[in-house]
Design brief:
The chain is of the alpha+beta class. The protein has 2 helices and 2 strands.
């Protein structure tokens, strides 16, 4: 069931919709993480404009996303190799 929720990122509040409670929880956790990162950058870079801080947060999140995608690809490759090795082993012992 679609739900209306309010999410705060930095100094702004956004009225959003979530498909279900699991998506709502994910959105809230993502907003919390974004706000944590904004706070960390603001404390280190006090004279920077918010656009610069948000750009660095976006870059950081994008890099983490790319690392996760690469990890998934590596994991899938390992699974395929294990599957092939297992099938090969089973064929050999079946002879």
């Amino acid at each position: 069931m679609e739900q209306k929720i309010k999410i705060r990122i930095s100094e702004r509040t956004y009225n959003l919709k979530s498909a279900d409670s699991a998506q709502e929880e994910m959105m809230r956790k993502a907003a919390d993480e974004i706000n944590r990162m904004i706070d960390a950058y603001q404390s280190r870079m006090q004279k920077r404009e918010m656009i610069d801080i948000l750009s660095l947060v976006a870059l950081n999140i994008g890099m983490e996303c790319m690392r996760l995608h690469q990890s998934v690809r590596d994991f899938e490759s390992e699974v395929r190799q294990l599957k092939d090795d297992t099938e090969s082993y089973l064929e050999d012992i079946g002879k």
